[in-house]
Amino acid sequence: MSTVSIQAAAERTAERREFRQWLAHRGLDGVTLLVLPAALFTVALFVYPFLYGLVLSFQPAEGGWLANYRTFFSDPFLYTTIAKTLWLALPATLINIAASVPVAMRVRLMRRQRLLTTILVVPITLGTVLIAEGLLNYLGPQGWFNRTLMTVGLIDHPIRLVHNYWGTLISLIISGFPFTFLLTLSYVTGIDPSLEQAAATLGAGPWARFRHIFLPLLVPGFAITFCLTFVQMFSVFPSAVLLGEPAGETRVISIAAYTAAYEQYNDSMAAAIAMIMGAVQLAIVATVLGLRGLFYRGPAGSGKG
After folding, report:
1. What is the average per-residue pLDDT within 211-232?
2. Model pTM above 0.85
3. Distance of CA 190 to CAs 94, 113, 119, 228, Å?
4. 305: pLDDT confidence band, cut at 50, 70 and 90?
5. Within a 13 Å sphere around the CA of 247, how many CA atoms are in the beta-carbon half?
6. What's the rounded Cα separation, in Å, for the pair 84 and 89?
């Protein structure tokens, strides 16, 4: 190889090294570039559909560019779906969080923690449709629950627990509890046990230890758990149809979007309803995250190490 070729190769190598250093200086090293496929995947499956739906919502079949939104907020049959969805999502979220805290506090002290955790998260593997079918058989007018109560003489006629608000709420609690429990357990087990031991040594009882030690450290985690669980509950659809009253008290906003898209074939209106649905979720999440700072300012948790 000639001296000129060697010198040219050395110059190209130096240029590539300088280019890599320039990228690394701006945080674009080789490891960072590994995130690029995930970023492209996110853009393709989430960002682009969102932007497409947003643009589509301002292209109604009739009227001006805000016609879909005017139609939604001028029709009680449509805009009341927001309140009906919140009336399901908020109680289900709060109940799941309230139930997961004592269970997580107990599970963290047990030896067979993995076994019990596995049992508690089984409902999340069933899916909402299978849970709905099970509740129809168990809580229906001729289900085991009503038959047992009538057999022992506690009631004279079946209690209506399906095809109404309560059936949908129970389904949301059952399907959402495993997810909420796992999040809560991760925050509870992340708190240094020595803090509780020190408080117990100073004479603090169980409630005092929870109120003064666990609760302040868990508030940031509760906020995140609430937001993630609420978003999951707010998107309720199968439970509201199978166990609720989709034309009445459980006509949630997702049903309104489905009706516009697949029964009225109005994609623009369906996109507008989806945008409103997302805006309501974002407003609730932003409010909760904003209120989090009023209760506790500090690290999100206390590690063991």
Report:
1. 87
2. no
3. 22, 15, 21, 19
4. very low
5. 0
6. 9
**Distances 48 to 56, 213, 239, 247, 266 between C-alpha atoms, Å:** 12, 44, 29, 32, 20
Q: How far is CA 56 from CA 128, 155, 206, 235, 283, in A?
A: 30, 53, 55, 21, 22
Report d(CA 110, CA 269) in Å as an integer. 52
CATH number for position 156: 1.10.3720.10
Range of the domain at 120: 66-295
Amino acid at 180: T
Query: In whole angstroms, how far apart are CA 290 and each of 227, 278, 281?
Result: 12, 18, 14
Per-residue pLDDT band at 118 (split at 50, 70, 90) = confident
Q: Summarize pLDDT for 127-184 with one digit per residue, the tens.
A: 888 888 888 888 888 888 888 888 888 888 888 888 999 999 999 999 899 889 989 9
Listed in sequence order, the residues at least 6 apart from 275 whose beta carbon sits closer than 8 Å to its beta carbon are: 53, 54, 57
Instruction: Classify residue 158: in a domain, yes or no.
Output: yes
Tell which residue, 245, 277, 253, 279, has the closest CA to residue 81: 253
Residue tagged 């497409």 (tokens): 52
| DSSP string over 179-229 | HHHHHHHHHHHTS-HHHHHHHHHTT--HHHHIIIIIHHHHHHHHHHHHHHH
Contacts of 4 (CB under 8 A, 6+ apart): none
What Rg value do the Cα atoms of the chain yield, rounded? 27
Domain annotation covers residue 59 = no
The token pair at 101 is 């805290």
